[in-house]
Write a structure and sequence with these properties.
Order of helices and strands: HEEEEEEEE
Largest sheet: 4 strands, antiparallel
Shape: flat
Structural class: mainly beta
Helix content: 10-25%
Distance between the termini: 104 Å
Number of helices: 1
Oligomer: single chain
Strand order of the largest sheet: 1-2-6-4
Strand content: over 45%
């Protein structure tokens, strides 16, 4: 009887252990950088207008990142106002260091109000691939109202 009970306990423990191993979510992070959207100017964003977007880049690694090239992807409805500013190069970003960056962008005039994605990309040496980050920006149409004050 005791052997049978011990056998069932061992089988139950083995099944529970195996199921917890199979369902465990690995904690693996490939993030080298964190991008924080600080602000846009002007705010709210309007169709057909230009704006500045201010971001902060933070090195999440324990080593210094060198020759980091961050660029805005031209994706509708956003576009670069200054075509010469295709990317921002950061020569050196130490572990934990924060660096502000900004871009001057325009918004297509023929869009509806809504939330649109702004995409940034950089080349990750760790992954040997281009990594993209997106931010949701709210575009609101403001219209002028013409009213008659007297006849």
């Amino acid at each position: 009887m005791k052997k049978r009970l011990l056998f069932y306990i061992i089988i139950t423990f083995s099944i529970l252990t195996a199921s917890s191993i199979v369902h465990a979510d690995p904690i693996i992070s490939y993030d080298e950088l964190r991008f924080d959207l600080i602000r846009t100017n002007p705010s709210p964003l309007e169709p057909g207008k230009a704006f500045d977007v201010y971001l902060e880049v933070i090195n999440l690694q324990s080593y210094t990142l060198r020759n980091l090239e961050i660029s805005v992807v031209d994706v509708f409805p956003f576009y670069k106002v200054d075509k010469n500013q295709s990317s921002i190069v950061i020569n050196e970003l130490k572990p934990g260091e924060k660096r502000p960056i900004s871009y001057r962008l325009g918004i297509n005039k023929d869009i509806n109000e809504g939330i649109y994605q702004l995409s940034l990309q950089y080349y990750s040496i760790k992954l040997s691939a281009v990594v993209s980050r997106t931010f949701d920006l709210n575009v609101k149409a403001t219209s002028t109202i013409v009213a008659t004050t007297s006849i």
